[in-house]
């Protein structure tokens, strides 16, 4: 068996979205999902994908609509996603199994304090998402939802201009590419910008947002989205 993989290096979030979408639609493996949320859907997916985005701060953070193609999200949606799902101290709503914020908000402050106390160029600032035994929940309830985002690792590098840059290394266990990827990545970029400010304030050293590296073993597009994806390409 030869895995179907893709490895991209691009400048912007929109270029990442379009480039991966082309890879999925042209070479993706088709399979039908057995269990979990949206069981039974037919998908095209990559067995593994990595993308390096050198300038993820480039605005707009979301794809711009073009004739005949609506964008799957907007800048306002990304801002709301940040506030409601990535960075707050609110508990999950009644029908929510989790929010990323319950893991990421305390981790942002803890990692910022770590950089301030132990130096910018350390390698322990990992922000895990979810519980190690999340998979056991499926033994009791096949419809349960567990986090798709599992990890944001952080590293500060000094670039050739002498600027300190906060890099994010992101892993999703499964990732809807057409609708979720652009919203997730825009929101996470906004989160990274908050994170850089926190580190700057706590450490007294200037830190700016840097590149983003993202990966997944199941970047996919569902069959209901195939026509929309083709229109973009």
Q: Which geometry do the CA atoms define? A: globular
Low-pLDDT ranges: none
Task: Give the averaged pLDDT, no decimals.
Answer: 94
* Lateral arrangement of strands in the main beta sheet: 1-4-9-7-6-5
Q: Would you mind describing this structure in some detail?
A:
This protein is α/β, with parallel strands linked by helices and 233 residues long. The protein has one domain (5-62, 72-127, 142-232): Thymidylate synthase/dCMP hydroxymethylase domain (Thymidylate Synthase, Chain A). It is 33% helix and 25% strand. The chain has five helices and ten strands, in the order βαβββααββββαββα. The protein has helices at residues 13-27, 75-86, 101-118, 180-203, 226-232; strands at residues 5-10, 29-32, 42-46, 48-53, 126-128, 149-158, 164-172, 175-176, 208-216, 219-222. Strands 1-4-9-7-6-5 form a six-stranded mixed sheet. Strands 2-3-10-8 form a four-stranded mixed sheet, with helices on one face. Helix 1 (13-27) packs across helix 5 (226-232), helix 2 crosses helix 4 (180-203) and helix 3 (101-118) packs parallel to helix 4 (180-203). It is globular and about 50 Å long.
Protein traits:
single chain; 233 residues; alpha/beta; Thymidylate Synthase, Chain A; six-stranded mixed sheet; four-stranded mixed sheet; 5 helices; 10 strands; 33% helix; globular
Please sum up the structure shown:
The chain has a single domain, classed as Thymidylate Synthase, Chain A. 33% of the residues lie in helices and 25% in strands.
